[in-house]
Amino acid sequence: MRNDYTSDVFKKLLDKLQQESWQLELLISGFAIFGLIGLKGYIFDELIYSTQNTNVYSIALIASVAPIILILLFNLIVHVLLRGLWIGALGLRYVSGDIDYDKLKYSEKFTKYLKRKVGSFDRYISRLEDYSSIMFAVSFLMVFYIIGFITLTLVFVLVKHYFNLYEGSFSNILDTIGNTVGIIFLFGILLTFIDFITQGFLKKKKWLSKIYFPFYLVFSILTLSFLYRPLVYNFLDNKFGKRISVLLFPLYLIIFLSTGTYYKTSNYIKRTNISTSEYASNNNYYSVLPEKEFVNIAAIPSKIITKPYFSFFIPYVEGIEDRIIEFHPSLKPKKDKRGLSTSAFTINELKTNGDSLISVYLKTFKSIYHVTIDSTKYNLDYTLSENKKKQIGFETLIELDSLKKGKHTLQLKRQMKPEKDSLGTIISIPFWYYPD
Known about the structure:
By secondary structure, the chain is α+β, with helices and mostly antiparallel strands. The chain is 57% helix and 11% strand.
């Protein structure tokens, strides 16, 4: 049976549910905090993986969602603490009743001050109730904001790339249309964001509202705001709610700043994820590489080498292909197919001369990247390979027959410009050679 929201019966039901909602709030907050803690670990693992593989779309999406997850966690934890305090205050009220300032026997000055600032115990409980309810509402508004942001990002990326994937005679025209749509879309996102952070400023000015209205209609659908719009406006028409939102923004800024805060224990020694001739990072040795981390720049099997050879792996990133094309322009394709793609648009894909192109690709890589051990240059041949972390990259074997026992430093260098022979050191990996 459908409820009539204008009837007295339905309003009484809402009033009753409103009074008992705190139990559901605590239950939902508890499950959400548990889930978000697990999701936070997964998100940061994916961010590390995307950074290693230079997946710019994934990096942009995850880097934007990660701080929102931290904010959501903060909101829900504060909500649980406030609800816990509210429950404790209710229990104390049952035992002790209201505050009796006369029994405290403070001086007249302090008694007047406390009556004015602290007031009655019931007012304190009422404020805790208001703070708790608003924090809970704000927390789950954030969920919808996250969904809206993800939806906008996906729509923008997919539309732009579907325009760019076409390779027919009108590809240039479609590229222009795609770029124009992208600019308009980004402008709409900017207007929506400004309206969001200013709590509806663009809706208040007559001439601005006329410009913003078409964007509002489109983006209200794309962000799914029609699902939670009444909640937003109910929140904004409340002075207490607005004060809370103004207070939360500085707290969110503190959260962002605190994520990059750490304590230094030395003026000279610091932990990094890139090895140098003086520092051996675990990210560059397979034997000690953390389970949830990936090879950073290059890797060898172990810090201590006992065999007369070892494998050397360089993970692929898009920047490597950009340099290979710079050094060998004939490898530049007519249409750059990197980025998002779909089999639906894969028409007449190049099949011939694939092996020869890969051969040229690897030879160019070899001419750009050079390996030395203690200043001795090694002439190496590479093959495309996948390591145990599922990273695609360039792998080779380095023979150590002529190497003496003790500490050595492997250096990966790169030719900086096609017309110049100058080399720049990318990474230095120290190791110890003690053959069996």
